[in-house]
Amino acid sequence: RGAKGLVRAPRTRLAARLGNTRTQALNRTRRDEKNCGGCGLLNNNRKTSALHAIGGGSNRSFAAMASAAAVEKPLLAQTELCTPLYDQVKDTTSQVVPSLKELLGELNEELTALEKDVGAAGGGPVSWEKLVVPLEKIVDRLGKTWSVVTHLKAVCDTKELRDAVEEVQPEQVAFSLRLSQSEPLYRGFKAIKEGAEWETLSEARKRIVLENLRDAELAGVALEGDDKKKFNEIQQELSKLSTKFSNNVLDGTKAFVKTITDKAEVDGLPASALALASQTAISKGHEGSTPEEGPWVFTLDIPSYLPVMLHAKNRSLREETYKAYLSRASSGDIDNTPVIDRVLELRKQMAQLLGYSCYADVSLAAKMANLDQAKQLLEELRMASYDAAKADMEEVKAFAKKNGFEEELRHWDVNFWAERMREAKYDVNDEILRPYFPLPQVMEGLFELVNKLFGIQVEAADGMTPVWNKDVRFFKISKDGKPQSYFYYDPYSRPEEKRGGAWMDEVVGRSKVLAPEGSEVRLPIAHMVCNQSPPIGDSPSLMTFREVETLFHEFGHALQHMLTQQEEGLVAGIRGVEWDAVELPSQFMENWCYHKRTLLGFAKHYQTGEPLPDELYEKIVAAKNYRSGTMMMRQLHFACTDLGLHSDYDPGVHGSIYDFENTIAEKTMILKPLPTDRF
Fold first, then answer.
1. For residue 505, what are the β-bridge partners?
2. Containing H/E element for 27?
């Protein structure tokens, strides 16, 4: 993120083939870079006391209650719950490289033994217990351990952690490639598929076999000699480029800091934005800052950036902030342009080695849709949305002119005037709604909803496991009095160390094979990460309605992982779900935000306890599709650019990636991008 191209961590097919740990997670980075929030809380048996405990300011720390005894190699250890020792790994990054090298050495030995054992069948029958059970154990050890490192890098990035990843990543990729391209394992899966027992296998086991065969082929198992060598070199370079891309975006985001001392320059910004800017200023050394008098410090982190674009009357401030946001990681040592160019080149080479015409075909081979279907859908949506988006823009222009704006409407003006028009049309805005959505009450409402839908209970379990930051929460999900799963929740923005967006990912998956001693099954554990504004002073974090939607959305992803009853670990929860099908549970949960009884059940003023008035609820519903044509075209522009770069783009024909994007913009954008737009 931070430049077009949606550079996602390259996959050697190991993740998809063997359960897809998704270190890039179910990440919602392109939907207006919406960030969710929520400081979870609920113990259903003690609602009042739980709410009281959470309702205070940002000084409340839950992490201090959880700490495991110090161990020599924390990265290779775990708690009785099968959770990582995040706090110790974070504090002992010098141990990351030797621990991973030790693990990879052991896994290479285990893989060698497995290949020998499977190969001894000599083309005869291969049992599930001989092939898949030991393979699941190997994959789990690798995925679980490596994901601790990549997760910490995403939520508390440091130079030491970056250096560790850079040093050990080539060995991690090399082992992943060896595993993905193992011919003995591939032949073993073929033997199961062609064997006499095939028809007796469960649906889940058949899916595991078919996915492994398909994804081994996409990983280059059939390549030989120079082609295999070239393929593996490409994968190594793509892995490095992905890490470099992410580092550049984070560094580019951190680089912008705008300090304002003149009160007139922040005119129009709501009290919540000024309070956050003052709190940021204090953290930057301006100890005497107040929300009323400043100084104020603004950053490119969404909770800081978005209020400026929506509310600041200072047009020059909007312009400066907008241009900085859209040009992150696009110059100097952190310029992502050559990174994207190289990624596209390598992905095309990889596709050709595998016998595909473009990388889009490789990616879609593991999804439901093919390239023609994807392009057709995008064009149908574009044709249905373009005129509506054009009408949206004309309406904003007319409204701005009617209200005294005589200049040309520029990119940094559109959202400001669109927000004024929304207020005029619906008499509602985020600042009116925020007091009704304090994080504790939103979480309580979410937990009560899933109790009604799925018969589960969610309760705070802080102290049961170590965490990586004092604001991180830990929860237990139970049904009929029995634990079903657990999850971490990291709610707040930390722009100095945490990447933007909102996502969920797995910590461990449900598995019978990997059940702890004395248990029938290993329970799934997830983490949800958001970028909500932190509490300010003695007030809880107050959410925008869009942040409420995002929280429900991410919890939908988490529920698919946590509520699974599938015990075949390689296809349990979010594992093995096609990328273009994975949004169903998240959309299902998100839609409940507009269900009146659900929303009014938890939307209560954080100071008075007054429920959200019916008239405000009606305004929320009425504004739901406000400028929906514009929003759809925005997403279509990203999708068409991504798909086009990976299918049709030829630098010899189309010029630079930005020239190509501008060609797409002729059909997808009403207001054409700025020459410096690199978002």
1. 527
2. strand 26-27
Cα separation, 388 vs 342, whole angstroms = 37
Q: Alpha-carbon Rg of the chain, whole angstroms?
A: 25
In the block, which residue shows the tokens 């949004």?
A: 583
pTM for the model: 0.87
Q: Kindly state the tokens that stand for 527.
A: 């983490």
How far from each other are the two terminal CA atoms of the chain, in whole angstroms?
7
Alpha-carbon span 151 to 156, nearest angstrom: 8
Which mean pLDDT values do the consecutive 10-residue runs of the chain (679 residues) have? 28 32 34 32 27 31 51 93 96 94 97 92 82 97 96 95 94 96 96 94 97 96 96 96 94 94 96 93 94 96 94 97 95 95 97 97 96 97 97 97 96 97 93 94 97 97 95 97 97 90 95 95 96 88 93 96 96 92 94 96 96 96 94 96 97 95 96 90
Picking from 462, 458, 464, 460, the residue whose alpha carbon sits closest to that of residue 83 is 464
- In contact, 404 and 645? CB cutoff 8 Å: no
Distance between CA atoms of residues 19 and 208, nearest Å: 9
Q: Which of 634, 674, 4, 661 is nearest to 319 (CA)?
A: 674
- The two three-digit tokens of residue 159, written as one number: 């130079």
Query: What residues form DSSP beta bridges with 82?
Result: none
Q: Helix, strand, or coil here: 287? A: coil
Give the residue carrying structure tokens 């490409």.
Answer: 234
CA-based nearest residue to 452, from 586, 566, 595: 595
Sign of the Cα pseudo-torsion (371, 376, 379, 381, in order): negative
Look up residue 465 and give its two tokens: 């496991």
Instruction: Decide the pairing of beta strands 503-508 and 473-479.
Output: unpaired
Q: Which residues are known to be catalytic?
A: 554
Q: What are 296's strand-pairing partners?
A: 260
Residue pair 96/111 in contact by the 8 Å Cβ criterion: no
DSSP string, 173-231: HHHHHHHHT-HHHHHHHHHHHHSTTGGGS-HHHHHHHHHHHHHHHHTTTT--HHHHHHH
How long is the chain?
679
Cβ 575 vs Cβ 581: under 8 Å:
no
Query: Cβ–Cβ contacts within 10 Å for residue 626, how many?
Result: 14
Contacts of 432 (CB under 8 A, 6+ apart): 616
